[in-house]
Amino acid sequence: MYADIIIDISHEKLDRPFQYRIPEALEETIYPGVSVKVPFGKGNRILQGFVIELKEQAEFAEDKIKEINSVAEGSVAIETQLIALAAWMRRNYGATMNQALKTVIPVRKKTKAVEKRLVCLSMEENEAKEYLAECKRRHYTARARLLEELLKYPQISYEIVTQKLNVNTGVIHALEEKNIINIIREVDYRNPIRNIKNQGYQIALNPMQKNAVDAVLQNWKQGIQKTYLLHGVTGSGKTEVYMELIANVIAMKKQAIVLIPEIALTYQTVMRFFGRFGKRVSIINSRLSQGERYDQFLRAKNGEIDIMIGPRSALFTPFANLGLIIIDEEHEGSYKSETLPKYHARETAIERAKMAGASVVLGSATPSIDSYYKAQKGAYQLIEMKQRVAEKPLPVCHIIDLREELKNGNYSILSRKLQELMEERLSKKQQIMLFLNRRGISGFVSCRACGHVIKCPHCDVSLSLHRNGRMICHYCGYEETASSVCPACGSKYIGGFKAGTQKIEEIVKKRFPGAKTLRMDFDTTRKKEGYEEILSAFANQEADILIGTQMIVKGHDFKNVTLVGILAADMSMYTGDYRASERTFQLLTQAAGRAGRGEKKGEVVIQTYHPDHYSITTAQKQDYETFYQEEIAVRRLLSYPPVSHMLLVLIASPEEEEAKDAALAAASWIEKKQTEGLKMIGPASAAIGKVNDIYRRVIYLKEKDYDRLVALKDEIEVFAKDLTDKKKINITFDFNPMNGM
Ligand code: ADP
Ligand code: ZN
Ligand code: ZN
Fold first, then answer.
1. Which are the contacts of 674, defined by CB distance < 8 A and separation ≥ 6?
2. Which numbered atom of ligand 1 lies nearest the CA of 204?
3. Whose Cα sits closest to atom 24 in ligand 1?
4. Whose CA is nearest to atom 5 of ligand 1?
5. Is the CB of 239 under 6 A from ligand 1?
6. Considering the entire predicted model, what is its pTM?
7. What is the pLDDT of residues 212-229, one digit of tens each?
């Protein structure tokens, strides 16, 4: 046996593994992740290295291969676990070991110490309170917001003030000029807030929350570590449950990782964790430079912190004694990596927890079908919290049938009901959010008269309209010519469904000339600060109506928003992939949750051509269980995940013919193997058939047995090596892909 070994990764480049022979005496003790001592270089200096892979055959001349010296003693280095995790990711998601290693271990990069700024209150508390009252009187909402927070936390980092509290730099400068606040600059910067007045922790869990915490604690007491799915409606107090569990973990001298989608990591959430755990918490986000992230990871490794909060990559925080991983909003698509290895943070977290002897808590108001299915099967323990903490009623939700609107001569994208409610809100100076459900790559074809959507006869996903007038299925490649009349009702109002936020803004401005609008979409947020600026302007009530894509539905609490309009609920229902209904249900439920966050009652208008579709009717009632039952039946019928597993094989080449031939060759090779239970669809052109002049073909494989699918991937890798060595072809893999390719 041979082992590929990466030499002490903190000193050498990650680029290349070295092969060593495993002496017979050590065969039992060497596996990927174990740290070993090996002779290295001309002088055979003994260095530490990490085993990343075992090989049965030598890949170099026998006499050039050196032997492993020994297993490193007391090698509890945290890297060991992370390397083992990288090896697992490499195998399960398909990537090179280097790609996997670079994902789990941040590259050590010396960064210049950056100067950081803290915003501090520079006047007495009483004075500040007076000034706050004045700001409120004059409706200086941004100033009031900042002062209110500074009265609670007298020193807050500049980034948190601008990015999370949505106070812009102009306001900060103005307050600085008036000597109400001052800015401290310092180099060695550790915590985003300082001088927290210890308020003591006030909240006592209610019985439902206690129940949830006890379920986990009881298992811990018996040494049982497992994965839990905490299904709790919005506002049921999940975050309090997380914090209570974390407090218990810390009491056991262990550490916790909390994953929260970046967009949902709001000021309120951040401060709740700081408020309770103070400086033992660190938060990372995607804006941190590699060096800064490394810095935070180093603090974790050195035991300076116990809790790391952040998006996907926080999962790889090198805690030595990890006890708990929490994944909030576990259904979020951002937990799936779009770069190689295309890992899913949920599965990877469960694997890391297994290695570390830790537990995993997945939390959501709308769990992924995947997780709920696993909970039903007993793989995860389901914990439910069905009531909200404060008995705030859910917003009233109207479903508007757009076919009826057309029948009644309303050709506008705004239904009569929505217009009426908008009028009323504007007159009351309350705010409105209009949400354009825009997901999906190219337009599906639908009938405005009857709502009929043209679907693939084989895959039950919508066909996408291409510029050449053909409608194509991106799973199996089926195509037909776009028709000019509806095959269901004969109407001529049929075509690609297209509408942009810009167009909607124009329509709204025309209809409500007095209203001020803000638009948030890819165009308006491209500027670095664009996103924050828009949110802060809306939070300061500088506009009446916020129009946007799915970016506006998450995590933001605008207390004055009492009406949410969902303009085309169907958009996400026909994105040409099997998760479309699931995504629709989640988006609608979340968007509806934006209405009535404050004291005033909220209303929601869902506009759709399919008022009877289960993802719409169940979202209206926030009825997750019924949605799940309907959806899982569809997945079962069509062998889609989670009932079956799916592997996307993406074949790319700068030569179109080469890509086509290779895809055909791979397909016929797979077919010849005649694997029982395996279903193959394709090859077909990818949804985006050409990216940067690289042609892309796809093959989808469905298989009930996950391990068999992984094994098949390994075989395809070997088979593909022949193809890729000779030509400019590149083959990559994606398990249970999230987005149509
Ligand atoms: P979720 O994460 O499920 O949306 P949160 O944990 O954010 O719910 O709780 C919603 C609100 O209720 C928060 O403002 C929180 O401070 C408050 N809250 C939660 N649990 C309690 C409790 N036991 N007593 C009082 N207030 C609570
Ligand atoms: Zn029709
Ligand atoms: Zn098809």
1. none
2. 23
3. 203
4. 237
5. yes
6. 0.79
7. 999 999 999 999 999 999
